[in-house]
Write a structure and sequence with these properties.
The chain is mainly alpha-helical. 80% of the residues lie in helices and 0% in strands. Residues 16-111 form the BART domain.
Amino acid sequence: MPDCICANENKENLLFDQTVGALQEILIDPDFTKMQNEFLDKNCDEFEDNKENKLSYTKIFKEYVELVESVLDKQLNDRVNGYSQEKFMEQLKYKNFSKIKKTMLNDHLLATKGTPRGSYRRRLRHVGNYG
């Protein structure tokens, strides 16, 4: 039974890595850049350099998000066998949580072993004593 879990985990990691790789390729693709530039050129005259935001900014932003999401979703579906936006978003959440947890545990370990670097919290307290 553990072999199945491990194999499934490796398959999910591979799918995640393939998705990230495809995403990188899409974002640097000249066609993607062209699509963004065309959208910006079409809408840039609507914006003004002041503190107040117009309602039209929200509409333009929503259009931009929909455009980018649809292009990314289509491209990722075409490039990555088994891609699912929902699954990818869940993996991102999990990987971010795992990274933060690992950082916190590592920081705690450093603090409890009394290494010269100490913990992040202790470093912040140290900096606070000078302010």
